[in-house]
Amino acid sequence: MLREFLRSTVRGARVTGCQPDGDDALIVDRDLLAAVDLLPLERIEVANLTRGLRFFARCAAALPGSHEVVCSGDLARFASDGDLLTITATAWLDREDVPHHRALVALLDGDNRVRAVLERTPFDLAD
């Protein structure tokens, strides 16, 4: 039996732009994607904490070091500059893979810089 687990999350991402004529993706600084092992075209879930919305999207890479988080195309309807987001990706695991699973959690500052990257397991106590 497969179970769905958190694989990667970015907490505290601040929207730096919206491009309604873009390519229907969340465009994120390539360094930030790498910090939590997210790839361009990967499916993500985005929670807009400012507006109380959730939506699915795909990742696209912005220039490394740009600190950009841009809602492009149809996604521009779900956010505005300055909105606070949580970006999440999941993975389906077999029971035997669960003990070895490590989720990556990136905590950002107000300028979309990585403050810390934490590893979490299914066996960690709630903090």
In summary, what is this structure?
The protein is mainly beta and 127 residues long.
What does it look like?
By secondary structure, the chain is mainly beta. It has one domain (2-120): Beta Barrel (Barwin-like endoglucanases). Helices cover 5% and strands 50% of the residues. It has a nine-stranded mixed sheet with strand order 2-6-3-5-4-7-1-8-9. It is globular. The model has no long low-confidence stretch (mean pLDDT 95).
Describe the secondary structure blueprint for this structure:
Elements: E1 2-14, E2 17-19, E3 26-29, H1 30-35, E4 43-48, E5 53-62, E6 69-72, E7 84-94, E8 103-108, E9 114-120
Parallel strand pairs: 1-8, 2-6, 3-5
Antiparallel strand pairs: 1-7, 3-6, 4-5, 4-7, 8-9
Could you list some keywords that capture this structure?
127 residues; mainly beta; Barwin-like endoglucanases; 9-stranded mixed sheet; 5% helix; 50% strand
CATH class: Mainly Beta
Span between termini = 28 Å
Identify low-pLDDT runs.
Answer: none
Number of helices: 1
How many beta-strand segments? 9
Instruction: Specify the overall morphology.
Output: globular
For the CA atoms, what is the radius of gyration? 15 Å
Mean residue pLDDT:
95
Helix content: under 10%
The domain count comes to 1
CATH architecture level-2 label: Beta Barrel
Q: In terms of structural class, how would the helical and strand content be classed?
A: mainly beta
What is the assembly state of the chains in this entry?
single chain
What is the H-and-E element order? EEEHEEEEEE
> Which strand order does the major sheet show?
2-6-3-5-4-7-1-8-9
Strand content: over 45%
Largest sheet: 9 strands, mixed
* CATH topological fold name: Barwin-like endoglucanases
